[in-house]
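Supplementary Note 2. Why include the ligand at all?

Several targets in our set were suspected to adopt different conformations when bound, so apo predictions alone were not considered sufficient. For every target with a known small-molecule partner we therefore ran a joint prediction. The input for protoporphyrin IX containing FE is given below.
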Amino acid sequence: MAGGLHAVARRLAASAELPAPEHSDANAASTASEPENAMQPSSPTADATPGLLSATPARAGRVVDAEAGNRAARTLRLVAAVWFGVAATGQLIFVAYILGLYGLSALRGDLAAWNAVMPRAYVPGATFANTVIGVHLAFAAIVVTGGIFQLVPAVRRRWPVFHRWNGRVYLSAIFLVCTAGLIMFATREIVGDPEQRVASVINVALILVFAVQALRHARARRIDIHRRWALRLFLAASAAWVFRVALMFWIVVNQGPVGFDPKTFQGPFLIFLAFAQYLLPLGVLELYFLARDRGGARVRYAMSAGLGLATLATATGIGAATMILWWPKL
Ligand code: HEM
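The joint prediction is reproduced in token form.
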């Protein structure tokens, strides 16, 4: 699906008579240290500034455009970093919930406490089923935490060896979480529409494709392309968190459950959200790539405004999920 979005992005770029988008060698070189340096002002502006007074009007205009583009790029980079900071905080609260509810009760030997949220999560004597759920939850906490560390630029810069090992742990944990999740689908009675299950299976397929691509390009030292796939992987692997945050945002905004039945957990809104939990963030990411790499000042400011709104919505959803779903269970 990201491939589809990517194809749309390519068509958009082509119709605007822009150069071929990402993955060309030239582009890989120009964004070699994404995400942090990709937003740095490009050198033409700096080189041209001293000659501005003697420049022709056309050249001066280009310099002014380039400066505006660079300011817009810095704004976009800042807004993206703020979104990531807000999302990372919300993900760490989710991890605290997983460890606090499921981890602590396991350490206390009180596995029956797992049933507080998931009915029949722990069934005495059902060793295989209990183990699968335990693996799913334990490695889910590792995936969420590991994903955040992988994306923090300072961690990558200062501790490259940690980045590599954390990457290996992250990918292995993703594989275990997905495998356990699929086994749970096949063996447990799960509430919800069948379409929601289809959406989750597609989510797993995307996660695996993105993981393979991120690993393949990292091994080949195609770092720019590796980072693009790693960002797609992060968003696809964050879908379980996005689902909870978006659902709570929806409930708070509508002052109650609209578009679904809270008892059966079925309804059109939940079917929509089951797909949107990864397609929406992945679509926004492709637009971000396009605005960052190919957009002029206006496009970058428009993208910044969109991301700013997304940040407000994310923060509202995190607040609601914390108060409604997570904090009461701790
Ligand atoms: C890193 C990603 C994931 C995280 C962090 C995560 C987290 C969780 C958590 C915390 C629960 C317990 C319910 C709760 O307390 O909210 C859960 C349940 C579950 N998860 Fe995941 N999950 C992830 C990915 C997946 C995937 C990819 C699948 C599907 C293949 C999946 C399938 C399930 C199922 C079937 C349940 C049980 C629901 C029930 O029986 O009510 N999860 N997950």
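The chain has a mean pLDDT of 86. The chain has one domain: 2-9+36-329. Comparable summaries for the other entries are listed in the accompanying table.
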